[in-house]
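TICKET: design request
STATUS: open
ATTACHED STRUCTURE:
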């Protein structure tokens, strides 16, 4: 009945409505039932779709709808977009500001920005350096955790900058090796694998 792309759009639209209603209140049966019947139409049959389609809609309470709506979103691995959760974008932008301190203290000039591309149907954020970008982009959900976002953005900045300047950055002054952005006990840091691995500095505090 639909092309694959149209089908994806319908699922995105329904799941976005369910997500927003679960967050803000006001969930009604219509998008939940519609999503369940679409999924079954495509041969995706789960306990939640079964329950939704077997029961009489009039007997579904708000608690039922909430539980089943959450199950459906989980079953299709739903993740909010930047449009649905602007705070995810704000967290990534703030992370880029922090990483930019390291870029500048490394003596690297050139415009850094966070962008999305029309051609990218995954809806990821991309780090652009002097108009170019590399890697796979950053999924919106990365913005859910401040330190995790910082490590992901640092990694994306590093990948993009190194592709464009053809130099390793940042480097451990002691071991002359490239650093990696990682989480160390929940904090985003630059790590060096020289001398049995050590943390050089938290992201944003390279000197
Ligand atoms: Zn080192």
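STATUS: resolved
RESOLUTION: sequence designed for all positions
ATTACHED SEQUENCE:
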């Amino acid at each position: 009945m639909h092309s694959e792309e149209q089908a994806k759009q319908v699922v995105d639209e329904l799941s976005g409505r369910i997500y927003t209603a679960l967050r803000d209140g006001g969930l009604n049966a219509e998008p939940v039932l519609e999503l369940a019947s679409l999924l079954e139409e495509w041969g995706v049959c789960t306990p939640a779709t079964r329950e939704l389609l077997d029961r009489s809609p009039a007997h579904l309470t708000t608690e039922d709808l909430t539980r089943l709506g959450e199950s459906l979103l989980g079953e299709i691995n739903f993740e909010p977009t930047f449009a649905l959760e602007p705070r995810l974008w704000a967290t990534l932008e703030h992370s880029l500001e922090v990483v930019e301190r390291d870029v500048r203290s490394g003596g690297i000039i050139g415009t850094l920005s966070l962008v999305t591309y029309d051609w990218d149907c995954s809806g990821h954020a991309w780090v652009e350096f002097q108009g170019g970008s590399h890697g796979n982009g950053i999924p919106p959900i990365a913005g859910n955790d401040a330190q995790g976002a910082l490590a992901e953005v640092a990694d994306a900045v590093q990948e993009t900058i190194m592709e464009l300047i053809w130099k390793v950055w940042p480097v451990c002054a002691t071991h002359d090796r490239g650093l990696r952005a990682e989480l160390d006990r929940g904090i985003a840091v630059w790590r060096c694998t020289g001398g049995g691995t050590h943390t050089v500095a938290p992201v944003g505090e390279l000197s």
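CLOSING REMARK: Strands lie at 112-115, 126-129, 180-184, 187-192, 198-202. The chain has a mean pLDDT of 95.
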